[in-house]
Amino acid sequence: MRFAKGHGTGNDFVILPDPDGTLPLTPALVAALCDRRRGIGADGVLRVVRSAAHPDAEASSAGAEWFMDYWNADGSQSEMCGNGVRVYARYLAEAGLVAPEGTFDLVTRAGVVPVTMGEEIAAAMPIPRVYVSSSATVLEQSFTGTAVDVGNPHLVCAVDEPTLEGLELFRAPVIDPLIFPAGVNVEFAAVGPAPAGADLYRRMRVYERGSGETQSCGSGACAVAAVAVHHAGLESGVVVVDVPGGRLTVTVTPNECVLQGPAVIVAHGDVDAQAIRQLVFS
Question: For 215-241, what is each residue's pLDDT tens digit?
Fold first, then answer.
């Protein structure tokens, strides 16, 4: 089985080229591929498949050729992944399947996402919807947060810099299952001085449902940016979000949310199908 490996600000993915949708992808296989000791290792899997070949894309493809079939590291599926969109786009460009410059539409489970190619890749994400207050508990310490929908669910908790640095995110934060019945990505964000060209700045760590703490979360950066703009009393703003894996820039307006940052393909290879099967069924 052919694969590639890529990352966006340290949020890494196994990429499986399957344009005709013939690969029998299962939760157990995804989890085996993402295993960092016995598989390839990643925060998730991106299956590169044509919209016409995947049933989840048929209703929303609007003529867009490619569908991002995204799976979390535990084998669960997710609606959206902002870093995944950009890494998927980089793969398409390097494989000669889209132009290396310009804009094209990519289908996700959260709808069609326009992608603009360049040295960095920008994705016009679903407009964040800030909707209710809730809380997350980490090792018996409770944090108040704001729920945000970016095509997938987020809870953004404001913390100070020492708290952010000292958080132990080796297990999932406890959240309200009535508000988040399908789970939630929990972001912890600290305020800092905005760099030149930005209106606001946040430093962020994230625990992603189905993957654990990751080096970055693109949709999470959008959620953090939306809350920052909302709490600042602004209608629009450019927010720089630093994550452990690098820097993302989010531009929020009443009609748009654009996530921009680097995306890199680092490897291509073959998976030993027999070894993976042994891992799945062991």
Answer: 999 999 999 999 999 999 999 999 999
Q: What is the pLDDT of residues 160-199, one digit of tens each?
A: 999 999 999 999 999 999 999 999 999 999 999 999 999 9
Place of tokens 């310009």: 102
- Reading the block at residue 225, the tokens are 């940016």
CATH code matching the domain that covers 129-261, chosen among 3.40.50.300, 3.40.50.1000, 3.20.20.190, 3.10.310.10: 3.10.310.10
Tokens 């326009």 map to which residue?
A: 114
For residue 69, the cross-strand partners are 47
CB-CB neighbours of 55 under 10 Å: 8
Residues labelled as active-site residues: 81, 217
Q: Which residues are annotated as a binding site?
A: 11, 72, 82-83, 152, 185, 208-209, 218-219
* Distance separating alpha carbons of residues 157 and 220, to the nearest angstrom: 11
Q: Is it true that 2-118+263-281 and 129-261 share their CATH fold?
A: yes
> 242 with 204: CB under 8 angstroms?
yes
| Sequence ranges of the binding site for substrate | 11, 72, 82-83, 152, 185, 208-209, 218-219
E strands, the chain, are: 2-8, 11-17, 44-50, 66-72, 102-108, 111-117, 121-125, 129-138, 141-149, 153-158, 174-175, 185-191, 200-208, 212-214, 237-243, 246-253, 256-261, 264-270
CATH classification code of 2-118+263-281: 3.10.310.10
Cα–chain-centroid distance for residue 88? 11
